[in-house]
Amino acid sequence: MIVSIDIDAQKTFTPLCPNELPIVGGDEIVGELNAQAALADWRVMTKDAHTLAAKWLCQNRADMGKPTGLINADVKWVAHAIVGSKGYELLDGLPDETAYDFCVWKGTSPELHPYGACFHDFQEKLSTGLLEWLRQRQTQIVIVGGLATDFCVKTTVLQLLRGGDWQVWVNLAACRGIAPESTQAALHEMTQHGAKLFPHAASIADAIQAA
């Protein structure tokens, strides 16, 4: 079985929401996400789902990246992906939430700001159910795309690699990173742990056909 995962493909991480966490090209990945999903048996969605009561929030962008002192939220971020806001929405052209086969909502608690889709907490004790769902479907390949390469995509890929004996394939055309340096470091770390990188969905289709 092949599973495709759309990681945090939300307007909050695009130029559509310039006051949140805009990523250059973040709004250009829909076609590739849909293309990789067309190769899969199942499609999964993850979303940041935050509250204005979050304890990791900062008012000034200059404070982003400073330590929070919290156990499950490492650094401060400006408000983004607030439930009910424009930034919380999936990118136009993606399916409605109810059209996905499995969904993960991340960071709903004011205490939590997880990056990965497999666990709610940094200690990786509180499962979101994604790993169990993948095992139940006897998943062989997980295709990943989304935002951002250097945070939520990277962490999710590493959790997936630790969590099962499936292959994890990253669709680079369906990903965008926050910064070039951290994005390159993330790609290196993912490959070092066993992920396979593909330039686009067409190359993934070729690999599936050749398998």
Automatic annotation (TrEMBL):
One of its GO terms (molecular function) is nicotinamidase activity. Residues 118-198 form the Isochorismatase-like domain. It is an enzyme of class 3 (hydrolase). Its EC number is 3.5.1.19. The keyword Repressor does not apply. Pathway: Cofactor biosynthesis; nicotinate biosynthesis; nicotinate from nicotinamide: step 1/1. One of its GO terms (biological process) is pyridine nucleotide biosynthetic process. Pfam families: Isochorismatase. It comes from the Bacteria. Gene3D superfamilies: Isochorismatase-like (3.40.50.850). Keywords: Hydrolase, Metal-binding, Pyridine nucleotide biosynthesis. Belongs to the isochorismatase family. This is nicotinamidase.
